[in-house]
Amino acid sequence: MFLNIYRGENLEPIIYKIKDNIQSLQDFQKHLENKHSERIILLDYPIVYIHNWKKGESYEVYVGETNNVVQRTKQHFDQSGDKQNWRSHLRTKSPDLYIIGHEHFNKSLTLDIENRLMMYMMGIDAVKRIHNKRTNPQNRYFPDFEMNHIFQRIWYKLRKTDPDLFPNESVIKDSALFKASPLHKLTQEQEDIRDRIIEKVFSALNDQNKRGQLIFIDGEAGTGKTVLNSSTFYEMYLKAEEQKIENFQCCLLVNHEEQITVYEQIAEKLGLKNKYGKVVSKPTPFINHHSIDQPIDVAFIDEAHLLLTQGKQSYQGKNQLKDIIERAKVTIVMFDENQILTTEQYWEAEILNDYRKSADENGNHFKLTKQMRITASDETISWIDGFTKEKRISKIPTDTTGYEIKVFEQPAELETAIKEKSAKEEHKLSRMIATYDWEYSQNSSVEKRMQKYWEVIIGEWKKPWNRELNKELGKKEKRKNRSLAWAEQSQTIDEIGSTFTIQGFDLNYAGVILGPSVKYRNGEIIFDPNESHNLKATRKRTLSNGTKKEFGETLIQHEVRVLMTRGVNGLYIYACDKELREALKEAAK
């Protein structure tokens, strides 16, 4: 009838799993009549609950908190006749109900537990839909210091009942969906910027004279652009619903295949796709399918540094940002010019500054400054900045936070170290990545190659480039991989990633191979386009005045920065250039 998950001692959470219907709820009440302490905690204290039901092999969930679980659940059943409402599934899908209590629960603590559960559900592959609308993260309260421990005990007990619905915490935290979730609690910096953006957007939408505005957010790698982006994007839809804005149109644009997949899954899980249709797109299809005469309300551009600034294949324009601004009443961009990687994305300083100036004049220019990806000391972050921005190598600091920078003599040693990290559950998202200094073509057939795979080859050591081993998988594995980022796919531990698969994503440990294009001469790091196979970075670019110019050194420098800022817990390095390798080994002493 229902399952009591053993409470134990030391103020363990009390969790009941019952069938989600009125009869089971009545039986649950009756069961508690002879359990005085549990009855008080579950029926008189605030509690958290989870409605869940299966749709095929997938789950749909609703997470809530209440001061009266019996009354609240009955309300859900009273409203379940509306077929447009998630509550209708309570009559038709044989759902389960988890009731979660704890002796220390108060309103604030249950709200935070509810928020964390929703955020975890976002990162679970088996959960296809979360029916809550928004979270309500709390600030300081008593006993907020107990929250993490209590949540871990709750999750541990839930996992015992259904490991598919409640997988290991480390699996969830490493998922790209979890990291990009709009349900994260924002830092004060992020929250202030988000609130100001939303205020400015709806002020512009309500005033014809304020339309056509550009909101510009600068932020380097790891400063929380993606979370700010997804949170603001989702919150705008909720705000539009509150203000009863009919036919609200807000489109999230990103010119990155892997990120598109992540945002599409978020839109589906939160019900945006079901209610509003296609809300995520790449820039070129958006431009081709929207006219200047009928602009949408808001165009939200993540990774705006990846926008094209000249024509290419299906895009026949000259500047994607200009074309998008013309097709939206308000345009919001997240930008990091240190992550521009190709000549088609290169911005002439004067043109880029004009856009920033336009945003400045309207009070619409914001900056993210706090490093959030790399869990390292300021000294370690400064070392990475010195290497990737200032072309210098200083002594590698000893990091008291536990972040590791290691230098390797051979690529095989780097591979062994990364695989050892990846074998541990808490570091399984550890991968090797490299500069684009070995030949690769996504379009060429096997017959046109000298070897079976496009490979990174260093002496006798070699490994396939990213996306090569996927061709060897069966249909089931390929289908599963479609919803996963490159680094989340199990076979990629035997591949080498590139900026094209890893940009915008985190790794636990990044094993970076600096190829022949990165050298060390006369005390300075050299970025050599002649050694690169990235034609998109090394070919000449035609400027607005008609002249042609090469930007290969700068773009390879950006490539190295992207690679060296992926690791959350550590950076492992192998350098092909002997002088660079010796300089790094000396710096590590």
Plain-language structure description:
- By secondary structure, the protein is an alpha/beta fold.
- The protein has three domains: 2-173, 3-Layer(aba) Sandwich (GIY-YIG endonuclease); 188-368, 3-Layer(aba) Sandwich (Rossmann fold); 378-587, no CATH class.
- The protein is 37% helix and 20% strand.
- It has 22 helices and 23 strands.
- The strands form six sheets. The chain has a six-stranded mixed sheet with strand order 1-2-5-3-4-6, sandwiched between helices. A six-stranded parallel sheet has the order 9-8-10-11-7-12.
Number of helical regions: 22
Largest sheet: 6 strands, mixed
Shape type: globular
Report the strand count.
23
Distance between the termini: 64 Å
List the helices and strands and how they pair.
Elements: E1 2-5, E2 14-19, H1 22-32, H2 36-43, E3 47-55, E4 58-66, H3 69-78, H4 89-92, E5 96-101, H5 107-122, E6 127-130, H6 147-161, H7 169-173, H8 176-179, H9 188-205, E7 213-219, H10 225-242, E8 250-253, H11 257-269, H12 272-276, E9 280-281, H13 283-289, E10 296-301, H14 320-325, E11 328-335, H15 349-361, E12 365-368, H16 378-389, E13 404-407, H17 411-422, E14 431-434, E15 455-458, E16 461-464, H18 475-481, E17 496-497, H19 499-502, E18 507-514, E19 518-521, E20 524-527, H20 535-538, E21 541-542, E22 548-549, H21 552-564, E23 567-575, H22 578-587
Parallel strand pairs: 4-6, 7-11, 7-12, 8-9, 8-10, 10-11, 13-23, 14-17, 14-18, 18-23
Antiparallel strand pairs: 1-2, 2-5, 3-4, 3-5, 15-16, 19-20, 21-22
Helix pairs in contact: 1-3, 9-10, 16-21
